[in-house]
Amino acid sequence: MKLQILNHEGKKIKEKETRLFEEPIRIDIIRKVVEAEREWHPNAPTLYAGMNRSASGNVSRRRHVWKSDRGKGMARIPKKAFWRRGTQFSWAGAIVPSTRGGRRAHPPHGNVNIKKINKKESRKALLSSLSYVSSVDEVKKKYSTLESKKINVAFPLIVSDLSSLDTKQFNSALQTILNEFISVAIQKRKLRAGRGKSRGRKYKTTSGLLVVVGNNEDKKIRGVEVKKVSDICVSDFAENGARLTIFSEKAVDDLEQLFFNEPKKIETKTEERRDIRKIRKAKKEMKPETQKNVKEKNK
């Protein structure tokens, strides 16, 4: 598959042939891996929350004992005794759920069922998400404002010199390259409606544009998410639909190296031993005259 590589002005510089975006789109596998990649935050109290009190054992629970709390109209719960005067004492309940600072009744235990994904399946899902992101029709489905518009942008978008641009040049380059997509490219934040404002999620933010750069590149732009090849996952590309994505030229090279470069064969000790045996066997088969010549050369 031949891809166009653009400069920051949106003009074609050269073409590159790659197999990265040829994988068939498998939405079922993508959804499965996205579900497995979600960051679960299990809700549970700490292990001894409400239990680290010295209430048990301070007050006797036996009947007809002068230091006991029995027969005095007191609640039969664990007590912290603050002071004593003979049979009288000041106390406060502790540990049990009905008391101040006590443990929670039936708290959540924080158990999470994590889905396991096979290596081949996760590899296929990542390749499938790359071709999912390179489809203009699938990207339009994610953004409802673009469904009725005609888009002339050729996907996937690969730009050569992204890391060398400053913020002003980068924003102007986005406008020339993305055209109609610029309205959804920059992240927008708005105030959340409802109770979630007081629970640590005051604002809702759109996903916006994802810029994938090479492992040796570094870029920070406000309102745009930038990720290295080593940090990307399927949910970055395909959570809730195909995300608008731009790749740098070095990112494409790093992705090709990740997927299609076979690892080098490592020689084991057994293979080294076999080579030594071959050399010894060859030496034995040599004539005595040639052996002398070899020894003299080694000297």
Descriptive tags:
6-stranded mixed sheet; Ribosomal Protein L4, Chain: A; 3 domains; alpha/beta
Structure description:
Helix 1 crosses helix 2. The model has no long low-confidence stretch (mean pLDDT 83). The chain contains nine helices and ten strands. It has 299 residues and is of the alpha/beta class. It folds into three domains: 2-42 and 117-260, Ribosomal protein L4/L1 (Ribosomal Protein L4, Chain: A), CATH 3.40.1370.10; 45-107, no CATH class; 269-298, no CATH class.
CATH architecture of the largest domain: 3-Layer(aba) Sandwich
Strand content: 15-25%
Give the helix tally: 9
Kindly state the number of beta strands. Answer: 10
What's the CATH class label of the largest domain? Answer: Alpha Beta
**Number of domain units:** 3
What would you report as the Rg, rounded to the nearest angstrom?
34 Å
Mean pLDDT score: 83
Assigned CATH superfamily of the largest domain: Ribosomal protein L4/L1
Percentage of helical residues? Answer: 25-40%
Main sheet strand line-up: 2-1-5-10-8-9
- Sheet with the most strands, sense and barrel status: 6 strands, mixed
Order of helices and strands: EEHEEHHEHHEEEEHEHHH
Distance between the termini: 58 Å
CATH T-level topology of the largest domain: Ribosomal Protein L4, Chain: A
Shape annotation: flat
Coarse structural class:
alpha/beta
> pLDDT under 50 segments (min length 5)?
none
Please give a quick description of this structure.
The protein has 299 residues and is an alpha/beta fold.
